[in-house]
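Quick note —
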Amino acid sequence: MNTESAIGDAKMEKLGPTLPINHRFLEPEKAVKTITDMAIWEKSEAYMEYTGFIATLNEAIKGKPLSVDCKISNNVSKFINLLEKIDELIDEFPPVEQPQRFGNTAFRDWLAKVKISSTQLLQEVLEPQLHLAIPEIKVYLEESFGNATRIDYGTGHEMSFVMFLCCLYKIGFFDSEDKVATVFFIFNKYLQIARRLQQTYRMEPAGSHGVWSLDDYQFVPFIWGSSQLINQPRIYPPVKFLEDDIIDKYADEYMFLSCIKYIKEVKKGPFAEHSNQLWSISAVGSWTKINQGLIKMYKKEILAKFPVIQHVMFGSLLPIRRFPIQQ
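Predicted structure written out below.
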């Protein structure tokens, strides 16, 4: 993890200026076609960039509540505005009356509208010199909200949004000072939209493992959320995150607790039964250990799973080529 964090930090300090003026953007394509391709993915530049990016932001928000005073740059504000426009589009496509309980077909119309609008939305936010990047990066944004055919949502869609954020750093739209705001304002807003979509359109979990997975829909907010809780005496020992009064009091301050609150709202029955993995995590003695364990679990349960990675797109910013080994 330290190596990847260092890689992430080193790259993030150099983002933007490292792209040559004649950089050729590519429309991303799927590249992991078979199980044997997984070995290529795990040694790829995209894998190192992605895991390094998660580790870098994980470090940036350590011990910080959502209300912490952090810089909100003009570009961060513009991007929050873009997400608010995407959120507002949900109002234009209310759920339709249909026989089946799950997978409301109005979601398809909403997502089609997002895809039609994505180029213009990004043109309004990005400086003109970055518009050449739009055909490449918009694919990650469009894939962030769920699958139109299956009307489902899962960790692969969440991954697409984090990759999208990573690309915005790589083209120099965000810089190193935006790291905390990226998680607390942009990713958190995305999380709210994802939850609203799940509930409005009764979306199925994509490839859920039932009670043995961490959560039906998300994973990254548990990683970053547990980093927030390191050295926070208000929620220590970690088993306190199961207490209703703690959840109610601090869900607006810590992403981890907002995730627990959401699970308790949408699932019925004993927590230990419907969320067994999280129940087990509550017994771990420190948030540092939980955070490290979740990063390992993410690599093993999400990034090493072919059914997830077969859908990942690779372009010029997150290439499938092998990561160059530094001499």
